[in-house]
Amino acid sequence: MDRSICESEPAPDAADLADRGAIERLFVVDNPEFVRAAYRFLLGREADETGRANYVNQLARGASRLVVLGRLRMSQEGRRAAVPVAGLKAVVAVTAADRLLRRAGLGAVALRAGRYADRLYARYVIRRSLLAWRGRFENTVGVVLRHGQQVEQLSRRLTDMHEELVPRPVVSPETIDAYYLAFEDANRGSRDSVLAKLAIYNDWLATCVPHAEGLTHQIVDIGCGRGEWLSYARQNGRDAIGIDVNRVMVDACIAQGLNVRCTDALTYLRSLPTGSVAAVTGFHIIEHLPFDYLFALVQESYRVLVEGGSVLFETPNPENVLVGSHTFYHDFTHRNPVTPSAIWFLLKYHRFEAIDIIRSSPYPEEAKVPGNDPLTERVNGHLCGPQDFAVLGRKQSAAGVQA
Length: 403
Known about the structure:
Layout: H1 31-42, H2 49-60, H3 65-74, H4 76-81, H5 88-103, H6 107-146, H7 148-165, H8 173-187, H9 191-197, H10 202-207, E1 217-222, H11 228-235, E2 240-244, H12 247-255, E3 260-262, H13 265-270, E4 277-283, H14 291-304, E5 305-316, H15 321-325, H16 340-349, E6 353-362, H17 374-384, E7 386-394
Parallel strand pairs: 1-2, 1-4, 2-3, 4-5
Antiparallel strand pairs: 5-7, 6-7
Helix pairs in contact: 1-2, 1-3, 3-5, 5-6
């Protein structure tokens, strides 16, 4: 195929417009750039400071750009360079008329006449540009017509490649949402058992979630799922809103009378004012997220928190070998385990203070290897230790994180 179909000319920089012989393009830049480019085109050099300041001041007082071009072109230096200018006779005539009017004491008339001449020249430029583009368009159409069959074949091939590379979904998002709720019901535990586990955060809820006035929300729970944490917060007298993209789970929460929105967590956080939330929480959500999204989520969480506000993110604990190598992958939507050290540093990087790790949900005693020797205890620690951990962090207030 003709390369002209696929390649386009890059847009010119304002400083080199004149270098390409299109002096009419100078009329689209600001006054300092206009003077600089006019010097380069007409005199072949950079503008000296005195000349640049002189012409910029004239233009600022309403002088005609055509007159400035004419003065440069008709100077001794400009005559020696003899650069061809589109519509040179008109430029010379306008410049001469401007000089005569000023000598006659009609400076105001000269300014109005110059501005009128600029408008006429602009129309002339537009007409030249349209004619040039018309020629290029007709040439392109001719090329396309000559190679129309090749274009059609290429288009069909690209369509085929797209269908090959981007498989169509075989089930609807709603079907997956319903499956995930059933998966949670079967594997996460009963509602009562989850509520019982949340009691380990009583102290955090009482001491690290400030009761500030005028907040949009006290708690924003991202990936709220079936709503256990929302219910727990409500039982403890806290205002909380849940965010989830799973419509089936959102509907289940609404049926319980919980305040839930079906939207993307990052989009929702970005809609909130700075310093408008006492806490941001997320239970078993960060292991589902790509790193750039998690990075932005932590960043936005810090922004929306009130001074002294807190974050709490709970996730499967890969320090437990069975969790990190086996049970973590029961959930098809998990991306990768998140280590305590990694999420601790991510919070530290985003200026959170008083960062702490709470480990929870160890395997029952009957699952451990019998024995009290150091090796057995170490094995049990790796295989039967806490299955979850939470990272906590606070946004420092003017009086410190204790405020």
